[in-house]
Fold:
Amino acid sequence: MQRPGGRTARVRTAVLKAAEDALVELGFAGLDLGDVARRAEVGRTTVYRRWGSVGALLADLLTDMAEQSLPRTRTGSLAEDLRANARLVQGTLADPRQGALFRAVLVAATCDPAAAEALHRFYRARVEEWAPCVTEAVARGELPPDTDPFEVVRAVSAPLYYRMLTTPDPLDEPAADQAATAALTAARAGTFRRP
Amino acid sequence: MQRPGGRTARVRTAVLKAAEDALVELGFAGLDLGDVARRAEVGRTTVYRRWGSVGALLADLLTDMAEQSLPRTRTGSLAEDLRANARLVQGTLADPRQGALFRAVLVAATCDPAAAEALHRFYRARVEEWAPCVTEAVARGELPPDTDPFEVVRAVSAPLYYRMLTTPDPLDEPAADQAATAALTAARAGTFRRP
Structure:
């Protein structure tokens, strides 16, 4: 057993921070275990023994990102919850460091199957965190009973990612609010009912 | 002046086909002008003189992809037009070769500013091609008069790209139809009105 905050935890924190720095600066193509060890001021052997591959390091980083992510809001109103979710995603992607990090892990997932699996787990965890906003709205009678909560939550993020990847347009709060409203409107009309 | 179908055009066709092959096989990180010249059976000097850089080659490939893309449908019904658009995007991304190509150019755009500009022009051209479906629906009184046609068209594609990038779920026709219905419902409710 490791004490929380013990040496093992400190090494992991330093290595994951260094991996983030490398991804932000160089992208996934530039991620290298030796370079991460140097940045983290940790022995190369430790890094190679503990993580073994770039894919495994990225998977651990995504696990940590999921654990560190903010909990969902609980405003009691689906419209407000979805807007808070959209603003959180928009703020994250618009932040220079966080945005570069997310672009780098999306790239990684298109190149590396282990990274893809870890990325899918990360998004699954985030969607699961926010899904109760929708289930509770269903229980309050605000949405059709067979609404798929995952699809509603995904519908909020999708336009923001698409805007980031395919347009030069700024990722601003009106874009976030429009994404939340579109998802809410479609959900109310029954678009996300399970088949 | 080059005759259409003359040597210059044949060289371009061969080089762009080779660039596509390389992107599908190796991704953007593996794109190399010398390798493309070899695959196209064209002299390296020709390729280096005419395209000069990987970013310029990718930009030319995206110009060609935009020119070769299918024209929009004209069914006279916005619901049918948006569904046709969703099915076209879904079929393209679900196709092993085309899907790999699109993932590679999305990756390229996160790494290379010239590629990003070319990618933005590509998506702009595609959105402009389909926007008249929306403008005509506005003229028919099916949508609020100040609806932004670009935002409606983008709303159809966004969930399909997001699903491809963040989930292991299949990109199937029900996903396409749900994307089209969600965009249509939100558009009818006035979500995509210009501020």
In short: The CA atoms of residues 20 and 101 of chain A lie 7 Å apart. The interface with chain B takes residues 27, 29, 103-104, 106-107, 109-111, 116-117, 119-120, 123-124, 151, 154-155, 157-159, 161-163, 165-168, 174, 178, 181-183, 185-186, 189, 191-192, 195 of chain A (CB under 8 Å). The first helix of chain A runs from residue 7 to 26. Chain A has two domains: 7-52, 66-188.
